[in-house]
Amino acid sequence: MFSESATYYDKIYSFKDYRTEALKLISIIREYLCSEENRLLNVACGTGCHIEYLKALFDVEGLDISQELLDLARRRNPGITFHHADMMNFDLHRKFHVITCLFSSIGYLKTLDNLARAVDCMTHHLLPSGILVIEPWFTPDAWHSGTVHSLFIDEPDLKIARVNTSFADGRLSFFDLHYLIGTPEGTEHFVEHHELGLFETDEIRAVLANAGLEVTYDPKGLIGRGLFIGRRP
Ligand SMILES: C[S@@+](CC[C@H](N)C(=O)[O-])C[C@H]1O[C@@H](n2cnc3c(N)ncnc32)[C@H](O)[C@@H]1O
Predict the structure, then answer these.
(1) What is 148-197's CATH topology?
(2) Ligand 1 in contact with 2 (CB < 6 A)?
(3) Residues of 197-216 as b/e, b for ≥16 C-beta within 10 angstroms?
(4) Atom of ligand 1 nearest to the CA of 66
(5) Measured in angstroms, how far is the CA atom of residue 189 from the centroid of ligand 1?
(6) Is the CB of 45 within 6 Å of ligand 1?
(7) In this structure, which CATH number among 3.40.190.10, 3.40.50.150, 3.40.50.300, 3.20.20.100 belongs to the domain 6-137+199-231?
(8) Is 213 in the pocket of ligand 1 (CB under 6 A)?
(9) Model confidence over 128-163: pLDDT tens digits?
(10) Any bridge partners for residue 126, and if so which?
(11) Strands 126-134 and 96-101, how do they pair?
(12) What pLDDT, in 10s, does the model give residues 24-33?
């Protein structure tokens, strides 16, 4: 999914304020986690931008399916353990007080069955009283098919234009991200196809509850996309 654009991931998402998000996340964790203990696993960690701010307070590890993004996460966070794995099927042989899955990464699971597999797997890695924090993708109502989107980076030695039209087929949102990238070495064009499942808030809540978690939903969350907090009894 991100193999061709990985080099430019941090530029493309430079509009995100990972420091402020991490600080909000820390205060939510402090509210829901009773213990002072602090082993944290960031699932679908991407280039490790949240980990950069979480590692001062937590004994943190990251996990992602993209080797290219993990390479960047490792470079950003020397000494931190990163796992190359699929969030639907991993076994790290250790458990955590906090597991996070942020910036809509669960959308890439596409179906509720896959979401249930991933939530079961993450819950299996939670210690008693531990919490699972999930930032969802759009709900079906909030997704507007047939809308056009663009993002531009304009630096002296780097020009990026990313343009796409959003579509949906039932509960699946999909879009082709067209990248036009210019550097002093030359200009290239490539297309990345993305498909993400559109889940209702109550459906995600039910998946977490079925995994045995006590669920709280914050409609605002870190960036306005909502946030699920599941606590293992
Ligand atoms: C939108 S990015 C978010 C990355 C990071 N959390 C952030 O905030 O920048 C989605 C991430 O989900 C990862 N991902 C997608 N499907 C996955 C899977 N099945 N298992 C693990 N990671 C996955 C991608 O590789 C990518 O890093």
Answers:
(1) S-adenosyl-L-methionine-dependent methyltransferases (2.20.130)
(2) yes
(3) bbbeeebbbebbeebebebb
(4) 25
(5) 23
(6) yes
(7) 3.40.50.150
(8) no
(9) 999 999 999 999 999 999 999 999 999 999 999 999
(10) 96
(11) parallel
(12) 999 999 999 9
